[in-house]
């Protein structure tokens, strides 16, 4: 857990507030606890912190955007098909995963309507619409090259935050956001693949019709993209306006740690 | 008389709504577009848009403004249906393959999320914070209701109050919200708005009770699924609660539900016969009738315009419907 603070909005407190909002005793019993993406939370906090809104309103904005992200991520967990002879437990899990996503999505609308913030409701709804269009493109693997695939992945990862940044007139952070979130996504997927030999992104790359990367090459291929993406991050982070200083520090620390732990790959790459 | 006859004078406006619905879900991705179209073409009675329009007739009726609400309410309903089919593993809806069966669960998830987002995006042209508060509360309640429905499946130890709360969230709230949002957008005087909301709530309750009765009394052809499907899925509805007043029935039903994964239509059949013989169907009709009467009473508070008669006719139709 990162302990850095953004304005008066410590990340730990924000995470706690989000967890409280999505608390539902029955859902918790059957579905996995939603993951709160700390990178997205951090960027979001950095975007909102320099606005002229009250601290309460800033906090509410961050919470609602994260609720949208959690809702979208939850629906990604619904299996493509029911298993044959699936247990009651699996069935119930699937049913509640569908409903949990709907519930979190309903909550974001509810909290924003309590704030009378119709403009923000519009911004988030439009972003969700676009993200689902993009998800369909990725789902049907409609790419000519790996670069195209990576670009779509970058869009899916960052579109929500970028639209929010535009809403707050902080789009200077958008280029960085796309590169950073793609890098972080690839690192997580690589880790998951190495640990559990499973990763949805690696599956798409190895089984994609236009760019089926050979199984033996997949880790190296993704690592090359991570490195490429890192250099784009370093370039874009240096161009961030001064009020994003804490975001710069946060990013540089993670880059330093990652490169330190992966020096061999970097040298080979 | 067919239901659509009762509001045939709204046809031109409803046609406009149909066109707007079609236009609103023109997704860029072909599968997303086809899946949304499939849902739209599966039709339905478009009850929610009708309630929006009729409620608005008591205020400043402006079809452009009403169209926004009516389309959004129908889209929210459609989005919940496409996700419900994933939950219930339904292969058919009104005789057509469901999105999840024609494509798969994931496509159904993305389609539902897309349609829901479109509905809110569309609705934000309505600058009435009170309407958004009302609707968002309804949506959250609707989700909670669905979670509770799953929680309560195959649970014999619950009462009629649980059932009524469940159907309120499942059906009545979206209908009453359609009435209220139509009223808010048309700036209907507040006492009328409240009366319309109550009408919507009572008619929604009555509608769902009758739906639950028909699950036992209608034919497979009329239902598009085998009779008793609700019970097979572990959903305890009003006739079952009445039948469970007989302790022997309750005990045997509990035993039947001990291993839900092995349940078949054949196991359910004797229970359907016993429910029918117990007087539970008649008692359920009585309760549905009571809700209808309350719906009529709510209308008494409204001025005598054509829309009021139509709302009465719809209530009458709902009370008598057979499918």
How would you summarize the topology of this molecule?
The complex is a heterodimer of chains A (about 270) and B (about 325).
Chain A: E1 5-6, E2 9-10, H1 11-21, H2 25-30, H3 38-49, H4 55-75, H5 88-114, H6 118-139, H7 146-167, H8 174-196, H9 200-207, H10 218-238, H11 245-261, H12 263-268
Antiparallel strand pairs in A: 1-2
Chain B: H1 3-6, H2 11-24, H3 30-41, H4 47-56, H5 63-88, E1 92-93, E2 96-97, H6 99-102, H7 105-123, H8 129-151, H9 160-185, H10 190-217, H11 220-223, H12 229-232, H13 238-243, H14 247-256, H15 265-277, H16 280-300, H17 306-320
Antiparallel strand pairs in B: 1-2
Helix pairs in contact in B: 2-5, 3-7, 4-5, 4-9, 5-7, 5-9, 8-9, 9-10, 10-16, 16-17
Q: What features would you describe in this structure?
A:
- The complex is a heterodimer of chains A (269) and B (323).
- Chain A is an all-alpha fold.
- Chain A has helices at residues 11-21, 25-30, 38-49, 55-75, 88-114, 118-139, 146-167, 174-196, 200-207, 218-238, 245-261, 263-268; strands at residues 5-6, 9-10.
- Chain A is built from 12 helices and 2 strands.
- Chain A has a two-stranded antiparallel sheet.
- Chain A is globular, with a radius of gyration of 19 Å.
- Chain B is mostly helical.
- Helix content of chain B is 74%, strand content 1%.
- Chain B has 17 helices and 2 strands.
- In chain B, strand 1 (92-93) and strand 2 (96-97) form a beta hairpin.
- In chain B, helix 3 (30-41) crosses helix 7, helix 5 (63-88) runs antiparallel to helix 9 and helix 8 packs antiparallel against helix 9.
- Chains A and B meet through helix 4, helix 5 and helix 6 of A and helix 5, helix 7 and helix 8 of B.
Question: What labels would you give this structure?
Answer:
heterodimer, A: 269 residues, mainly alpha, 73% helix, globular, disordered N terminus, B: 323 residues, 17 helices
How far apart are the termini of chain A? 30 Å
- What coarse outline of chain A follows from CA principal-axis ratios? globular
Query: H/E order of the elements of chain B?
Result: HHHHHEEHHHHHHHHHHHH
Strand order of the largest sheet of chain A: 1-2
Shape of chain B: globular
> How many β-strand runs of chain A?
2
Largest sheet of chain A: 2 strands, antiparallel
Helical content of chain B (DSSP H or I, runs of 4+):
over 70%
Overall structural class of chain B, as computed from helix and strand content, comes to: mainly alpha
Global Rg of chain A: 19 Å
Terminal-residue CA separation of chain B: 13 Å
């Amino acid at each position: 857990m990162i302990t850095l603070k953004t304005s008066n909005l410590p990340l730990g407190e924000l995470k706690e507030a989000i967890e409280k909002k999505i608390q539902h005793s029955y859902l918790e019993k059957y579905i996995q606890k939603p993951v709160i993406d700390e990178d997205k939370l951090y960027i979001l906090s950095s975007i909102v912190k320099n606005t002229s809104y009250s601290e309460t309103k800033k906090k509410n904005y961050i919470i609602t955007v994260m609720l949208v992200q959690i809702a979208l991520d939850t629906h990604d967990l619904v299996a493509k098909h029911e298993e044959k002879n699936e247990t009651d437990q699996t069935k119930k899990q699937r049913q509640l995963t569908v409903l949990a996503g709907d519930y979190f999505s309903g909550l974001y609308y509810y909290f924003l309507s309590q704030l009378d913030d119709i403009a923000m409701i519009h911004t988030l709804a439009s972003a969700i619409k676009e993200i689902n269009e993009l998800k369909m493109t990725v789902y049907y693997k409609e790419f000519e090259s790996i670069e195209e695939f990576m670009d779509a992945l970058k869009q899916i990862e960052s579109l929500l935050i970028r639209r929010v940044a535009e809403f707050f007139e902080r789009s200077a952070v958008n280029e960085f956001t796309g590169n950073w979130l793609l890098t972080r996504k690839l690192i997580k997927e690589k880790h998951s693949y190495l640990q559990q030999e499973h990763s949805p992104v690696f599956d798409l790359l190895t089984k994609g019709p236009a760019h089926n990367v050979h199984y033996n090459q997949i880790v190296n291929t993704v690592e090359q993209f991570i490195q490429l993406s890192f250099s784009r991050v370093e370039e874009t982070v240096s161009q961030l306006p001064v009020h994003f200083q804490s975001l710069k520090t946060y990013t540089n620390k993670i880059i330093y740690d990652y490169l330190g732990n992966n020096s061999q790959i970097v040298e080979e790459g | 008389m067919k239901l659509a006859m009762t509001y045939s004078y709204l046809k031109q406006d409803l046609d406009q709504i149909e066109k707007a619905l079609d236009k609103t879900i023109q997704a860029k991705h072909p599968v997303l577009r086809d899946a949304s179209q499939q849902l739209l073409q599966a039709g339905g009675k478009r009850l929610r848009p009708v309630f929006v329009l009729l409620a608005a007739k008591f205020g400043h009726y402006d079809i452009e403004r009403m169209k926004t609400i009516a389309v959004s309410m129908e889209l929210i309903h459609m989005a919940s249906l496409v996700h419900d089919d994933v939950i219930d593993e339904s292969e058919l809806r009104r005789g057509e393959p469901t999105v999840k069966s024609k494509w798969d669960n994931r496509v159904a998830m993305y389609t539902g999320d897309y349609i829901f987002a479109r509905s809110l995006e569309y609705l934000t042209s309505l600058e009435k914070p009170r309407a958004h508060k009302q609707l968002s509360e309804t949506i959250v309640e609707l989700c909670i209701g669905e979670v509770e429905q799953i929680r309560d499946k195959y649970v014999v130890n619950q009462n009629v109050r649980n059932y009524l709360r469940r159907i309120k969230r499942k059906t009545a709230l979206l209908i009453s919200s359609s009435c209220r949002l139509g009223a808010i957008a048309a700036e209907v005087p507040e006492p009328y708005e409240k009366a319309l909301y109550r009408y919507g709530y009572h008619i929604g309750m009555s509608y769902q009770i009758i739906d639950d009765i028909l699950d036992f009394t209608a034919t497979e052809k009329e239902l598009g699924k085998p009779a008793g499907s609700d019970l097979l899925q572990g959903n305890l509805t009003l006739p079952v609660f009445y039948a469970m007043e007989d302790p022997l029935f309750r005990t045997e039903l509990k035993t039947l539900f001990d291993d839900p994964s092995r349940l078949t239509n054949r196991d359910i059949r004797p229970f359907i016969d016993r429910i029918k013989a117990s007087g539970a169907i008649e008692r359920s009709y009585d309760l549905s009738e009571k809700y209808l009467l309350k719906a009529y009473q709510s209308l008494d508070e409204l001025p005598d315009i054509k829309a009021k008669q139509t709302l009465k006719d719809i209530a009458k139709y709902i009370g008598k419907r057979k499918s």
